[in-house]
Write a structure and sequence with these properties.
Layout: H1 7-18, H2 26-40, H3 45-50, H4 56-70, H5 73-80, H6 86-99, H7 115-133, E1 140-143, E2 146-149, E3 153-156, E4 159-163, E5 176-180, E6 183-186, H8 192-200, H9 215-219, H10 224-239, H11 244-253, H12 258-268, H13 272-282, H14 311-325, E7 329-330, H15 334-342, E8 393-401, E9 430-434, E10 451-453, E11 462-463, E12 467-469, H16 485-490, E13 497-498
Parallel strand pairs: 8-11
Antiparallel strand pairs: 1-2, 1-13, 3-6, 4-5, 6-12, 7-12, 8-9, 9-10
Helix pairs in contact: 1-4, 1-6, 2-4, 4-12, 5-6, 10-13
């Protein structure tokens, strides 16, 4: 994929690209943007998002940022250098040489655990985790209404669980204890492989799965279904400091990844109408046909968590899975999610009390995209639940409130509060997401972190996992039910019937 430019290289490339002759006129800039992104980006739709972003500097920043993120910056630089004066062409060539240099002089995968070696390790670990734990593996199952993919489940026993944090975010305080009944939770986030079964079965064309408030409106592409998330993005844009010092302080306070920070700064330089057009493109008023990122190259591996899914899509999938399997699945509440992550001993992270790059897919590991599930076995809970820290934020069914800056449903958690898990809440009421993501600081991967998201929100960092109530007594003897056929036959967690001839999909090659 090539190396990423440093901040200095990024700024130098922007200055050099401003000197490309096509940058001299608005029409030329637009043509260069469209051509660059269509020629060197696997998904030409990026060009439509960025084609009208203003002057030469905005256009240059957009090109460098997007192509560096996609790993196709070097061939573009070598091509446009031919149109530059010799001195500038030489400077651009030197940066291109550095960006495409192999990790070591011998071109080997580095032995010191560099980024490339780490990505290889994650892929291999995911394959090993899946092959060791899944018996049978993911694959089509026969259900009363047709095929589906059964999610591996792990029971969480009834008990009293510590919730919240003492000295961190105010939205996580206070530390308290909550009694929970037994439930089962997905061992992994829902994968592309699983969600594709829903898409292939016509899930986006069948309104019976979208009956929650706002779901059918969102499915039909009606304007009011995305009004709240559009308004939130515009309000966030207006609040971005325009001076460099103020922006850096703002970005640091939010612990933004440099890529995300550069996105914010790029957008902050646009005119209001330009940014409104971008937001309208992100959240269009037309019926969706699939998750937002299902066809984008960095997000389409079958074993990656599905991303770019709104709460409406997650809830529709859960209803469809329940109908297909004959068992009542649901999104976990934030308390079920946190109990599964922390255990009865109240761990700070799912695996323990510190988060290093071998524990979770966060910005520290520089993986650059969601990793295949199970790729960080060192970060699994002692009970065996994977990917609760990092990789993707996960929807819960718990309400936050309409104001994203202030929780209407704060801690301490009141299990008997009637509206806390209200599935009929309107679509302008935010829900709690948990877990952090591949692009976030490890701080957000703490098990007590609560992040509000509006139901229509879709981005490359949000996914979900499923849960199921366990009706009868302690769940201790169900511990390995999800991975052992004999155990399934006598356990409360069902063992579905696989279709003959199916095999583990080879998605890691």
């Amino acid at each position: 994929m090539g190396n990423r430019p440093t901040n200095d290289e990024f700024n130098e490339l922007v200055v050099l690209l401003e000197d490309v002759p096509m940058m001299a006129t608005p029409a030329g800039r637009q043509r260069l943007l469209l051509w660059a992104l269509a020629e060197f980006a696997p998904d030409p739709s990026l060009a439509a998002e960025l084609a009208e972003q203003g002057g030469p500097r905005a256009a240059a920043m957009a090109i460098v940022h997007e192509l560096a993120l996609l790993g196709t910056l070097v061939p573009f630089l070598r091509y446009v250098a031919e149109d530059l004066a010799p001195g500038r062409a030489y400077a651009m060539g030197k940066i291109a040489d550095r960006l495409e240099a192999p990790p070591t002089e011998a071109g080997e995968v580095p032995e010191d655990g560099g980024p490339r070696a780490f990505r290889v390790d994650v892929t291999q670990a995911s394959r090993q985790t899946m092959s060791r734990m899944l018996s049978p593996p993911f694959g089509p199952m026969d259900g009363p209404l047709g095929d589906y993919c059964w999610p591996p489940l792990l029971p969480i026993r009834a008990g009293v669980y510590p919730i919240g944090a003492r000295d961190l975010s105010v939205n996580e305080r206070p530390v308290h204890r909550v009694r929970l009944g037994a439930f089962a939770i997905g061992v992994f986030p829902v994968t592309n492989l699983e969600f594709r079964a829903f898409v292939a079965a016509g899930g986006y064309r069948d309104e019976q799965w979208w009956t929650r408030p706002g779901g059918i409106s969102w499915l039909r592409g009606e304007r009011e279904s995305v009004a709240a998330v559009r308004a939130h993005l515009l309000a966030t844009w207006r609040a971005i400091p325009r001076d460099n010092a103020g922006f850096q302080a703002w970005a640091n306070a939010k612990r933004l990844h440099p890529v995300v920070a550069s996105d914010y700064q790029l957008h902050s330089r646009l005119a209001p109408k330009q940014f409104e057009a971008i937001v309208a493109n992100w959240y269009p008023t037309e019926p969706p046909k699939a998750p937002a990122y299902m066809l984008k190259p960095r997000f389409l591996d079958s074993m990656q968590p599905v991303v770019g899914v709104s709460l409406h899509e997650a809830e529709a999938y859960v209803r469809w899975l329940s109908a297909r399997s004959g068992y009542a699945f649901h999104l976990p509440s934030e308390i079920q999610w946190e109990a599964a992550a922390r255990g009865e001993d109240g761990r700070l992270y799912p695996h323990g009390y510190a988060c290093q790059r071998q524990h979770a897919n966060t910005r520290v590991g520089n993986v650059g995209h969601p990793s295949p599930v199970g790729g960080f076995p060192a970060g699994a809970t002692p009970e065996g639940v994977h990917d609760l820290a990092g990789n993707v934020w996960e929807w819960t069914r718990s309400l936050w409130g309409p104001d994203l800056a202030r929780a209407e449903h704060p801690y301490p958690y009141a299990p008997l509060e009637p509206l806390r898990e209200d599935v009929l809440a309107p679509p302008h009421v935010a829900r709690v997401t948990k877990g952090g993501s591949w692009l976030d600081d490890p701080y957000f991967a703490r098990s007590s972190t609560r992040k509000p998201q509006l139901p229509a929100r879709r981005n490359s960092r949000i996914g979900f996992r499923v849960a199921m109530h366990i009706e009868h007594g302690s769940s201790t003897h169900y511990r390995w039910a999800w991975s052992n056929e004999k155990a399934h036959k006598s356990a409360a967690i069902p063992y579905p019937r696989r279709r003959a001839g199916d095999f583990f999909p080879q998605t890691f090659g």
